[in-house]
Amino acid sequence: MDLTQLSCEDFLSQLASKAPAPGGGGAAALVGAIGTALGNMVGSLTVGKKKYADVEERMRAELVELDDTRAHLLSLIDEDARAFEPLAAAYGMPKDTDAERAAQNAALQKALVGACEVPLEIMACCLQVIESCVFVARHGSVLALSDAGAGAVLAKAALMAASLNVVINIGSMDDVDRADVYRNQMEDLLAAGGAMADEVYADVVKRLS
């Protein structure tokens, strides 16, 4: 499975179909990757310009980080699809007898771990994107200021979308302690990323007005 090799049209068509993947997690990873690309564009329009010579070194470092994060987010599109496979299989297992129900629940509990950890990784990547967008919005080319804001907003949307996969999956976990750990990680990422993205958006709107 390599969903990233699909055309935009084919990816969206598969997303719109009843196919099990891609789903919300894969879509979130793609949107986050688009956010990194916008941050990259701002940085690319900044480096090499005398006006921004004082931030040249840091901007180049941000470009490398954005490249790495975008590649990781793209890999997480397929990783999310792979994580969903055992979850779907578990939900489809027979549950007619006590033994079958026990086996089904055991498979489900195991699958829920990956189904939570992948979207949490997507969220962590989106936070990195937002952090980079903070820098490029403040110090990048003013000609692409709106794109820096758009990158932060898209990364926030991806962050929130991925969190919903965590919410739905921890709700089925028998391991309350593990569910609490995942919930706390999710809430911390949402709080940090959401606040930063909102600040970038407000700052960009103010400077553009």
Summarize the SSE layout with pairings.
Blueprint (H helix, E strand, L loop, with lengths): L7 H9 L7 H21 L11 H36 L6 H42 L5 H26 L5 H33 L1
Structure write-up:
With 209 residues, the protein is mainly alpha-helical. The protein contains six helices and no strands. The protein has helices spanning 8-16, 24-44, 56-91, 98-139, 145-170, 176-208. Helix 3 runs antiparallel to helix 4. The protein is elongated and about 70 Å long. The N and C termini lie far apart (45 Å). The model has no long low-confidence stretch (mean pLDDT 95).
State mean pLDDT (0 to 100 scale). 95
Task: Look at the helices and sheets and give the structural class.
Answer: mainly alpha
* Largest sheet features: none
Strand content: under 5%
Identify the notable features of this structure and list them briefly.
0% strand; mainly alpha; elongated; 209 residues
Outline:
With 209 residues, the protein is mainly alpha-helical. It has helices spanning 8-16, 24-44, 56-91, 98-139, 145-170, 176-208.
